[in-house]
Design goal:
Layout: E1 4-7, E2 10-11, H1 17-28, E3 34-41, E4 46-53, H2 55-72, E5 88-97, H3 101-119, E6 123-127, H4 138-141, H5 149-152, E7 174-178, E8 183-189, H6 194-204, E9 209-210, E10 231-232, E11 239-246, E12 251-258, H7 266-279, E13 284-290, H8 295-308, H9 317-328, H10 338-341, H11 343-348, H12 360-368, H13 376-399, H14 408-443, H15 450-491, H16 497-521, H17 529-561
């Protein structure tokens, strides 16, 4: 899975759209970054900008946006209702997919250091990126706001983490952080009562409700030694919630902010609200996601609801998303468009066309055209993915076979394994074409001088190694599918035993095809140590794959005969 992070900088300008446009133009100037949302507020005089992409590209876009803001926003003339202390007030990075919080923190600090060194403004790191525990809380870091910043910077305890410890009237300071992904999520109820909706919200939100003496509704609030209300915690961690009535829809909702979906995922919040609502005689009728959601959150939800039905979870992402949408009623108030609501799908918009996005007919016709790509390497990877897909089909059919109900989880796990192999092979379909094109690019480099010839030769060698590594990776990946095929032949639904056999045949063809690509690309690098190791391992993979295919087909014949 590709690494994706989100950046949500808040700029201290919400009224002059020309200023805002100059800043967002900087974001959009970086290839690979997708600008998702621009939300200006006149009263707060503040604009929240949201963009996503690969980490290196995102921090480049963030740096350029912050630099532009430092040039065109004058904090000495700023006023607004929202707390702030800089032209760019805060700049949090959020892990979305394929990246840990720990990695995101490294990127946040890297960005903070660059801002301090190159733009020359004071930078504080907060939340997970904080360099000291006392600076984790943003409100504490921003205390005194812009008006108190000049004096604050003279205090040793408020020395910035990066940049100069001096007051710059035009730019102020900036807080750079790393935080978890926040999902705004509303659950719909079959009531118009805000009071009842609030009661459910208090049941589930982490903060809970004030403790009372005697009657839990009308009793006197219990206070602690400091005179603050004692709280009875709710059932969901990392959840903020309130009940309200939405006139547009004529229903009450539980409006939630899920501040850490690793702790409380969307599906867990939905089910818990259902439980608490039912206990109060109220039914949940559906829900809605406000803004965007990571793909993983939807896939996890789909798997969760399939497991509750004791059905196989080794199905396509499309099917998992469909199950999630239907289970949580995400389409009750309007059509749920995955391509609009899921971050990773938003990123795909406008991207170069991939072979795996073509229809089966178009892929065939593209292969048959006079273009050298897609070639045998891409077709080999695709054959392998289709072979493994057949084993996944047998696993899913076995999971749902009448009379095998107690074995659904066993086959679901095999289907999940097959799906992982399929997905990797599909990525390799396009990567093989990229590898071929990298060779063409290397041969196209100039070779006029001795230095240019040296650079060109080095580029050709690197590209050739890449073109050898990719089909070798296909071979290794497909090999993992034989175990699944053999298990399905021996233990799977007997009515689909030949499907698993065909899968094994396709997988062997994939391995053989990829091996041919390894050999032809190795011709000019026979003496390279890495190529020699690949050829040695490749021959062994060919031998073992052939053995496995023969054993699987023999198993098919035996089961057909019996």
């Amino acid at each position: 899975m590709n690494k994706i992070i989100e950046c949500v900088p808040n700029f201290s300008e919400g009224r002059d759209m020309n200023v805002i446009k100059q800043i967002t133009d900087e974001v959009e100037s970086v290839d690979g970054v997708k600008l998702l949302d621009v939300d200006p507020g006149k009263a707060t005089n503040r604009t929240v900008v949201t963009f996503v992409g690969p980490p290196e590209m995102v921090i480049e876009a963030a740096f350029l946006a912050l630099k532009k803001a430092s040039e065109i926003i004058d904090m000495s003339k700023h006023s607004g209702e929202h707390p702030r202390f800089g032209a760019t007030d805060v700049c949090p990075l959020v892990p979305v997919a394929g990246i840990t919080m720990e990695e995101t923190v490294i990127y946040a600090r890297k960005l903070a250091e660059r801002i301090g060194n190159e733009i020359g403004i004071p930078v504080y790191c907060y939340e997970n990126a904080a360099l000291s525990e006392g600076r984790r809380n943003l409100a504490h870091v921003r205390s005194g706001e812009y008006e108190g910043l000049k004096e604050k910077l003279t205090l040793p305890e408020w020395k910035p983490d990066y940049g100069p410890a001096e007051f710059i009237p035009r730019t102020g300071s900036v807080a750079v952080g790393a935080r978890d992904f926040l999902v705004a999520y509303n659950v719909n109820l079959n009531t118009t009562s805000t009071r009842r909706a609030n009661a459910i919200a208090f049941d589930v939100r982490e903060r809970g409700r004030a403790k009372r003496e005697g009657n839990p509704i009308t009793g006197k609030i219990v206070k602690d030694a400091q005179g603050k209300p004692e709280m009875v915690p709710g059932t969901l961690k990392s959840v903020k919630a309130i009940g309200w009535f939405i006139e547009e829809y004529g229903v009450a909702q539980i409006s939630m902010n899920l501040t850490n979906i690793r702790i409380t995922p969307v599906h867990a919040a939905f089910d818990e609200v259902c439980s608490k609502a039912q206990a109060r005689g109220i039914r949940v009728t559906g829900s809605e996601l406000v803004g965007l959601v990571p793909l993983q959150a939807m896939l996890d939800a789909g798997r969760y609801f399939l497991r509750k039905q004791k059905r196989s979870t080794g199905v396509s992402d499309q099917e998992l998303i469909k199950i999630a949408v239907k289970s949580m009623g995400l389409d009750e108030l309007g059509t749920f468009h995955p391509e609009e609501k899921i971050i990773e799908y938003q990123l795909r918009k406008g991207a170069d066309r991939k072979l795996v996005d073509l229809s089966l007919q178009n892929f065939m016709e593209e292969t048959a055209s006079e273009s050298p790509t897609p070639g045998g390497g891409s077709v080999s990877a695709y054959m392998g993915s289709m072979g493994v897909a057949l084993t996944a089909m047998v696993a899913n059919l076995s999971s749902h076979k009448r009379g095998w109900d107690e074995r659904w989880e066993e086959f679901s796990e095999w289907a999940e394994k097959a799906k992982l192999v399929q997905e990797k092979l599909l990525r390799l379909v396009d990567e093989d074409t990229l590898a071929f094109n990298s060779i063409l690019d290397a041969f196209g480099l100039p070779k006029n001088s001795a230095e240019e010839k040296k650079i060109r030769q080095s580029a050709i060698e690197r590209a050739t190694l890449y073109a050898i590594e990719v089909p070798f990776e296909v071979m290794k990946t497909v090999y993992n599918g034989f175990e699944i095929a053999e298990t399905m032949v021996m233990k799977g639904n007997p009515n689909s035993v030949t499907d698993a056999g065909v899968g094994a045949l396709a997988m062997l063809a994939s391995v053989e095809g990829a091996w041919l690509n390894v050999k032809i690309n190795s011709v000019d690098l026979k003496d390279h140590p890495r190529v020699q190791r690949i050829e040695e391992e490749g021959r062994e993979l060919m031998k073992e794959s052939t053995k496995l295919k023969n054993r699987i087909i023999q198993g098919v014949e035996e089961r057909i005969g019996s």
